[in-house]
């Protein structure tokens, strides 16, 4: 068996204590938003990487995860360092009660591979939109949240949380109502 060496980075912040030792490792980068996380072992497609535990409710922030139409949580763990990708290898499943929340592999994930999830799979509107650097063939460029994506753009990412699908259905219904109202108004103007 060949062991892939894990990458090395900058020193961790003083007082840092890993939350998933032996399972996940944060690779500390120099500067803001340059750290990332890798697994210590391979995960097969569909395998649960870990449960999402130890969270606290909080306001929408760049570091929070949306778990319902109007609630956000802080992860309070190394999962904070799972970066965004438009072609993610993980799903953050926050559908159902908190006891069922988990991180799951969307495809085979190799030991030492950078872990990523598709932020709009849980975020309706990003607190801090950003330019994606994933360079995948289906990269969306500017990431603002699910609100600004089509349903097809969401669904091609392999996983979307139920609260985002519900918000997308509401958005479609509101657009349909607006089109219907504008169409009726336009006909009234033409008749006069």
Molecular structure report:
The structure is a single chain. It contains two helices and twelve strands, in the order ββββββββββββαα. The chain is α+β, with helices and mostly antiparallel strands. The strands form five sheets. The chain has a three-stranded antiparallel sheet, with no helix packed on it. The longest helix has 30 residues, at 162-191. 24% of the residues are buried.
* Spatial order of strands in the largest sheet: 3-9-8
Please tally the helical runs, counting DSSP H or I stretches of 4 or more residues. 2
What string gives the helices and strands in order?
EEEEEEEEEEEEHH
* Unreliable spans: 185-192
What is the radius of gyration? 20 Å
Largest sheet: 3 strands, antiparallel
Strand tally: 12
Approximately how much helix is present in the residues?
10-25%
The global form is globular
Structural class: alpha+beta
Beta-strand residue percentage: 15-25%
Average predicted confidence as pLDDT: 90
Please give the structural blueprint.
Elements (H helix, E strand, L loop, with lengths): L23 E4 L8 E4 L8 E4 L4 E3 L5 E3 L5 E3 L8 E2 L5 E4 L8 E4 L10 E2 L12 E2 L10 E2 L7 H5 L6 H30 L1
Parallel strand pairs: 7-10
Antiparallel strand pairs: 1-2, 3-9, 4-6, 5-6, 8-9, 11-12
Question: What is the compact description of this entry?
Answer:
Helix content is 18%, strand content 19%. The protein is of the alpha+beta class and 192 residues long.
């Amino acid at each position: 068996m060949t062991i892939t060496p894990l990458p090395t980075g900058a020193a961790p912040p003083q007082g840092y204590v890993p939350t998933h030792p032996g399972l996940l490792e944060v690779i500390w980068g120099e500067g803001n938003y340059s750290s990332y996380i890798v697994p210590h072992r391979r995960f097969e497609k569909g395998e649960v990487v870990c449960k999402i535990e130890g969270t606290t409710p909080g306001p929408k922030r760049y570091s929070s995860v949306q778990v319902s139409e109007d609630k956000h949580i802080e992860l309070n763990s190394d999962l904070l360092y799972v970066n965004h990708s438009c072609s993610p290898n993980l799903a953050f499943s926050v559908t159902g009660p908190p006891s069922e929340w988990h991180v799951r592999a969307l495809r085979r994930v190799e030991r030492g591979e950078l872990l990523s999830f598709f932020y709009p799979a849980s975020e309706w509107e990003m607190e801090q939109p950003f330019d994606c650097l994933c360079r995948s063939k289906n990269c969306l460029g500017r990431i603002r949240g699910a609100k600004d994506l089509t349903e097809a753009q969401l669904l091609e990412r392999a996983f979307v949380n139920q609260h985002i699908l519900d918000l997308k259905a509401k958005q479609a219904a509101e657009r349909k109502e607006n089109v219907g109202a504008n169409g009726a108004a336009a006909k009234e103007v033409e008749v006069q």
